[in-house]
Amino acid sequence: MSENPGTEKVKALLKKVDDGSFAIPYFQRGFEWTPGMVCDLIESILQDYFAGLLLFWELDQEQAKKEEWDPVWGAKGKKTPTVAILDGQQRLASLYYSINNPAKLFPKRNSFYVFYIDVTKVLNDDKDESISYKYFTTHHQPWDRLIRDKDVWARTGIVPLAVLSAKDPTNSNQDYLDSVEFAIWLDNYIELNKEKLPTGTTSLKVYQVFSSILNYSFVYYPLSSDRDLHDICNIFARVNSKGMKLSTFDLMNAFLYPKDIKLRKDLWDNFDNDILKNIDSGMNEYLLKVISLHKQNYCSAKYLFNLIPGQETTRKDENRQKYQQILVQDSSEFKKLWQNSCNYSEKARKLIMNTGFSDFGAIKRDYVPNSTIIPVLAAILWEFDGDVDDIEFSENLQKWYWSAIFTEDYSGSSDTVMAKDFRDWKEWLESHKTIERINRVTLDYVENIDFKTTKKGSARYNAILCMLALNDAKDFHKGQIVGSAEYSHESINDHHIFPSGVKGLDSSKSKTFSNYKDSIANRTLLLDETNNKISSSSPSEYISKMIKKHGDESKVKSLLQEHFISDNAYEYLRQDDFDNFVIEREKEIREHLKEKLSLQ
């Protein structure tokens, strides 16, 4: 294969995808486009726009037989590949999935997707929103099922793109587009839609709408098989001008591959911890950040590349003098560091998501205040490498964690914050020097936090839910701790105290209801079952029922205190006085936060 650009039609490209000639090297990321991005690509093809250059690498067949390869998403990979796709995987996988309709779930979705073309829109030159999709949660929709609706296609003009890959039911060697049956369908479609179609629309023009997709030509650039793997990985890492931007993890994956480290395939994909993985889509990069903090006290992207085995980097000693150092000697050391990062990140996750003496109470993934705090917490635990119940360490960790959450410094781009906090922790572990963040949150700082406007999704909102779980808050009706293992986490959620649909509130006592009803001042942890019982009841109504159920008002008041509802707030609940209730509850939330921060 000469290293000169060429062109290849979609139909020919998809044939090579289907028969396994094309493959994905392990240093590539997976298929990550969304269904909407698939639609955008095909609409661009219909408009004959430039859809980007494809970059291929011709494979040496002897070497290719020794390696393992991923097929394009949905294809079978039936033989030893001849070409590796370096750039263009997302486009080819999108075309293959939408046209060949494989019996495979769409990536990162629990559904099978079918893509459709609105032929009438295309013929009327309205191509921008001419591609759509439907998803099916239980069963794949094969061609023999889709074709049953061909009369519906004729009436609506909305046809599955799978028609482009289908075969004639009476002749498996003939494409369906060239069959007599499809020719009859074309005439039927025109007859049913003649009032919607441009004057003079013929069967040929309709046929050309379909064939234009298959005949669209991509420009491709081939790299010959005599290029070595290191060269190929460097080229791949620098090809980042089209399509989705490569993440730091993608780039590290490419640079580590020549070092005999299959970061994505072996280390990340085989990391058997779905709970930790699913906390954040960037967890794979967070694990690299943990290693970087441990090895060099910094974790922004430019520092991660210093972790490549054998990579020489410039560092400064305590006198600010520069020197050269290799941080990671070889692939074996890198793999050990990765394993340690996984282990300490899981320890960090357990601290954040459990409700013990030293824990932070995020009983559900959605309640983790800031996932970005996991790498620095993991690195702290790695550096400490001791018993987290050690009193002095635990007290400082508690104050640091809640301070970090309530300053909201971990809610945005936090690499600098993470590195500073970690360095402060190292100094504390070595010489008990003050951790700056702990001193930033003062009594005045806490008094100035407006919890009445703290809404769902914010770090502070989630942190209060965590504090409720740590306070052993009990369900209003069941009377059992909502953060315990007695219930499925899926049945516990954050719900309104004054229900959002409550009727008949006195307007003089609920002037702020519309503004504050969804804030953390009016939310707590309850079982869904209980929330349904009190759904539109006023607090005075459901508290009366609680007293009957629990048999004693003092027990109800005690239970509600665990939800940061003071005696004063309780009285306002009994009076259905929302305005004063949120003021009193905000005061109680502050008192509990002061306790967490040892500010009392």
Descriptive notes:
The protein is an alpha+beta fold and 600 residues long. It has 28 helices and 14 strands. The strands form 5 sheets. Strands 1-10-3-4-2 form a 5-stranded mixed beta sheet, with helices on one face. A 3-stranded antiparallel beta sheet has the order 6-5-7. Helix 10 packs antiparallel against helix 11 (248-256) and helix 17 (373-384) runs parallel beside helix 19 (415-431). The longest helix has 23 residues, at 331-353. The chain is flat and about 80 Å long. The mean pLDDT is 90.
Query: What is the β-strand count?
Result: 14
Distance between the terminal alpha carbons, to the nearest Å?
Answer: 75 Å
* Largest sheet entry: 5 strands, mixed
Helix content: 40-55%
Q: What structural class do the secondary elements suggest?
A: alpha+beta
Shape, per Cα inertia axes: flat
Number of distinct helices: 28
pLDDT averaged residue by residue: 90
Q: Tell me the radius of gyration.
A: 30 Å
Query: How much strand content do the residues show?
Result: 5-15%
Widest sheet: strand ordering: 1-10-3-4-2
Q: Stretches where pLDDT falls below 50 for ≥5 residues?
A: none
